[in-house]
């Protein structure tokens, strides 16, 4: 495997907190609980067996039309 942080794979989940809780109940461990980010998305992070970053997020309206869009 190459060195570094690996690949980042994003999965958008409309009901992020619920999905994270459901995965945790099935034994999945997260590196970061659902957190509001400064770019106005809510994200939770974990790693796969190869160390790649898996990011579950909800961007909602801010994903397509952020307030800073011109």
UniProtKB/TrEMBL annotation:
Record has Ribonucleoprotein as a keyword: no
Membrane-traversing stretches: none
A Pfam family per the record: Glyoxalase
SUPFAM superfamilies in UniProt: Glyoxalase/Bleomycin resistance protein/Dihydroxybiphenyl dioxygenase (SSF54593)
Stretches assigned to the VOC domain: 1-59
GO MF annotation list: dioxygenase activity
Keywords, sorted A to Z: Dioxygenase, Oxidoreductase
Protein name as it appears in the record: Glyoxalase/dioxygenase superfamily protein
